[in-house]
Amino acid sequence: MQHLWDVVGYAYNADVYCEHCIAALFEREDDDAPSIFDGAETILDDEARRRGIDRDDVSSYDSNDFPQAILASEVEGDEHCGKCLEKLVS
Which domain holds residue 30? Predict the structure, then answer.
């Protein structure tokens, strides 16, 4: 069951991505980097730390520079991932 505050996708570079696709886009091959199995939020937290981005302050960065979370409550109608075309909210 999805809650209104659940992250269902990400706005990035003028497109919308599901959690799996954004994780794959930002996954690094470093030994100490989180993997896709750790999830999108963990991968994005790690990448934000590396870039000096405060993900808790979405007004401090633009979604063209770094992904911003889309909550279930923000999705109207059928929103699809721009890469895999899966629906964000089921």
Answer: 7-74
